[in-house]
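tokens incoming
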């Protein structure tokens, strides 16, 4: 911009020439300059006022729009923003086959402390020790008076405990909302469910993750929001499971056993209706795994799946079924049963030195539980075919059931399988497997001869087959097992109306330290089916170190221990399973005609 001088020389000279006062020119120029400056200031002020008006209008419009949006939206509880990844605490329920809750989530609170905000740490420590007896007052005081600015007190507390802590009135004691895993049935099906615990934690939430059992295997499924919270349905029947555990616990105490297990399985499908292992635990307060001693003595040990035992004479029906299927014998074929039997430097004898010889039918070998007769059949079958048959029944691999403990429970097999191993394994010695292996094998052989896969999860496609024995052989094996209960070693297993069939097995326990077997410690097993003519269910009961006193003498065989426990389980559960008692027809050769 060109600046006009206040006293321009040309105008001054012109004014002097005309006789005018030159100072008036300067005053006029000052006036004009001031008027121009005033016009510029007025225009600038008007622009600023216009801009401020526009800004105020936009601000009021934004506030009004937000108010309108809030007024039109649904009310919601505000959430506190927290840095870091969001912790997903929601976990789907687990239910039984009838939809009854086995595991669910419960909203609770955690308790933590900010020691720097505490007013009376001594009083807080003293009163917290009263509310939570497992906490020591001295340790709490060390926490509250130390340099730490944050301390967990309890990961989960009950509403009553929360109120008691609130009544202390200490501002440094704070609560955080969270969900915890709840097992409303307590110890029921503890080894199947396994339990859950907290993973990633924050003061406002915690991630729930499976620790063992079904909770661990299906951890991803239960936490996946894509499933829409759909529950995981198990094959268990909660009512039947409760009855099995109650009877098994009573039988374990009555027989003075240190442990017990029971498996109730559908013969046709492999679905496990009930599975119990004792001693057990409460998954709401899962104990820590033992760090020393025998792991099998821990309540966390699942004897039905992890327990690998010699199952004794329960294997004999498998040997007989293979011999029948190969055409080597029929139920009436006579077998040399003279005892003892010599094979190389080994002698095969019978229980308590008995001799059932000189010959027994295949049926009577099973009824009397003859080791020698079974060994003779196994030698006719041959080593390779015997191994292949056991392999087809799943005895060479871990069970495929949906438990995290199952893959590590591999059967113990002979290092070098010779003829002597074929003999001993045929009657259940020299090879160890779990009760679940045995239940699966019985279901496969006795359901008509089709291999089943054990399962705990409802709704999955059942893997049935291939065929392991013919239908005729399966029926013959069922008849033999029925005779074991009617007139053999399992006479205490009779349950009127349910035609129980089964086989006993008694095996000495191996010594923990060193070779050989314990003298007075046994594993007793009763593997049974009911009804025997059309088996709907397989039941395997195993007792660890049972002793039943009869007339002042200790009885440690399965016929005196496992059999009566299994019979009581069948008596209690068969009506719950919808099985009606039936009158078993008496064979005509046992009917006597009389005249008045």
């Amino acid at each position: 911009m060109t600046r006009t001088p206040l006293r321009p020389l040309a105008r001054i000279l012109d004014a002097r020439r005309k006789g005018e006062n030159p100072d008036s020119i300067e005053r006029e120029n000052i006036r004009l300059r001031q008027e121009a400056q005033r016009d510029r200031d007025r225009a600038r002020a008007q622009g600023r006022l216009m801009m401020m008006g526009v800004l105020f209008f936009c601000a009021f419009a934004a506030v009004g729009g937000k108010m309108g949006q809030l007024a039109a939206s649904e009310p919601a509880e505000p959430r506190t923003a927290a840095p870091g990844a969001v912790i997903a605490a929601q976990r789907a329920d687990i239910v039984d086959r009838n939809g009854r809750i086995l595991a669910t989530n419960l909203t609770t609170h955690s308790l933590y402390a900010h020691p720097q905000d505490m007013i009376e740490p001594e009083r807080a420590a003293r009163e917290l020790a009263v509310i939570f007896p497992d906490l020591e007052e001295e340790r709490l005081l060390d926490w509250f008076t130390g340099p730490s600015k944050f301390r967990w007190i309890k990961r989960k507390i009950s509403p009553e405990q929360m109120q008691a802590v609130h009544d202390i009135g200490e501002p440094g004691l704070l609560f955080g909302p969270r969900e915890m895993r709840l097992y409303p049935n307590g110890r029921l099906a503890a080894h199947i469910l396994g339990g859950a615990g907290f993973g990633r934690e924050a003061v406002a939430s915690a991630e729930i993750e499976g620790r063992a059992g079904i909770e661990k295997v299906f951890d991803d499924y239960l936490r996946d929001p894509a499933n829409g919270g759909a529950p995981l349905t198990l094959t268990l029947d909660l009512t039947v499971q409760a009855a099995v555990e109650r009877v098994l616990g009573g039988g374990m105490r009555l027989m003075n056993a240190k442990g017990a297990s029971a498996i109730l399985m559908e013969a046709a499908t492999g679905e496990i209706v009930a599975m119990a292992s004792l001693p057990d635990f409460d998954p709401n307060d899962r104990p820590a795994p033992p760090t020393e001693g025998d792991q099998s003595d821990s309540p966390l040990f699942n004897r039905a799946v992890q327990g690998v035992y010699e199952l004794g004479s329960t294997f004999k029906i498998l040997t007989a079924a293979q011999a029948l299927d190969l055409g080597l014998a029929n139920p009436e074929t006579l077998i040399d049963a003279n005892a003892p039997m010599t094979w190389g430097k080994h002698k095969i004898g019978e229980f308590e030195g008995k001799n059932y010889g000189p010959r027994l039918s295949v049926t009577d070998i099973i009824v009397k539980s003859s080791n020698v007769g079974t060994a003779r059949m196994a030698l006719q079958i041959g080593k390779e075919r015997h191994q292949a048959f056991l392999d087809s029944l799943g005895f060479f691999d871990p069970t495929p059931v949906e438990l995290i403990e199952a893959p590590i429970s591999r059967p113990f097999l002979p290092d070098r399988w010779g003829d002597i191993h074929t003999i001993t394994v045929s009657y259940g010695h020299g090879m160890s497997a779990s009760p679940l292996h045995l239940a699966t094998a019985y279901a496969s052989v006795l359901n008509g001869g089709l291999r089943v896969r054990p399962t705990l999860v409802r709704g999955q496609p059942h893997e049935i087959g291939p065929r392991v024995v013919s239908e005729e052989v399966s029926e013959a094996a069922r008849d033999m097992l029925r005779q074991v209960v009617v007139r053999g070693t399992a006479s205490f297993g009779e349950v009127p109306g349910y035609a129980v069939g089964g086989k006993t097995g008694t095996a000495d326990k191996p010594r923990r330290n060193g070779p050989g077997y314990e003298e007075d410690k046994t594993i007793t097993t009763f593997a049974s089916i009911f009804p025997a003519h059309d088996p709907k269910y397989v039941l395997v009961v195993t007792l660890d170190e049972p002793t039943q006193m009869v007339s002042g003498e200790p009885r440690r065989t399965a016929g005196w221990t496992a059999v009566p426990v299994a019979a009581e389980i069948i008596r209690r559960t068969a009506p719950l399973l919808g099985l009606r008692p039936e009158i078993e027809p008496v064979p005509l050769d046992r009917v006597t005609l009389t005249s008045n």
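note: The first helix runs from residue 9 to 18.
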